Amino acid sequence: MVAGYAQLPQSTGAGVMWRHLTIIVRVDPTTHRVVDASTTLATRIADEFVHQLLIGRDLTADQADLIGALEQRYFGNGRKAIIGACRDLTERYLEVVDSRQR
């Protein structure tokens, strides 16, 4: 499992409840693909949207595609936070992969 974090704007429902967004994913270590995902977004539909975008993605290769999909399809106030948390979690995962290959 790996988590990514970003600060939420106070203009979002999740930002009112929490200061930070967390996106956590379970990754198959042999394929680097996301097999499950969850967020601290305030609404079920937003959480499911991010979940669907993440499932099946290879965290070692799909960061640009994931960010592009978010930029083209998510237009809420939390957009920058979601993108930031996704970048953070892919970078954290890459650090783990790199450290295991040494």
Individual helix count: 4
Mean pLDDT over the residues: 89
Query: How do the helices and strands follow one another from N- to C-terminus?
Result: EHEEHHH
Helix content: 40-55%
Number of strands: 3
Task: Tell me what portion of residues adopts beta-strand conformation.
Answer: 15-25%
- Overall number of domains: 1
Major sheet: size, sense and barrel closure?
3 strands, antiparallel
CATH architecture group name = 2-Layer Sandwich
What gap, in angstroms, lies between the N and C termini?
Answer: 20 Å
Strand arrangement within the widest β-sheet reads 1-2-3
Overall geometric form: globular
CA radius of gyration: 13 Å
CATH class call = Alpha Beta
Helix and strand composition category:
alpha+beta
- Uncertain spans, ≥5 residues at pLDDT below 50? none
CATH topology: Enolase-like, domain 1
Entry summary:
By secondary structure, the protein is α+β, with helices and mostly antiparallel strands. Helix content is 49%, strand content 22%.
Folded structure, characterized:
This protein is α+β, with helices and mostly antiparallel strands. The protein has a single domain (2-101), classed as Enolase-like, domain 1, CATH 3.30.390. It is 49% helix and 22% strand. The chain has four helices and three strands, in the order βαββααα. The chain has helices spanning 13-17, 44-54, 63-73, 79-101, and strands at residues 2-7, 20-28, 33-39. It has a three-stranded antiparallel beta sheet with strand order 1-2-3. α3 packs antiparallel against α4 (79-101). The longest helix has 23 residues, at 79-101. It is globular and about 45 Å long. The mean pLDDT is 89. InterPro entries: DUF3870 (IPR024617). This is DUF3870 domain-containing protein. Residues 1-93 form the DUF3870 domain. It holds the Pfam family DUF3870.
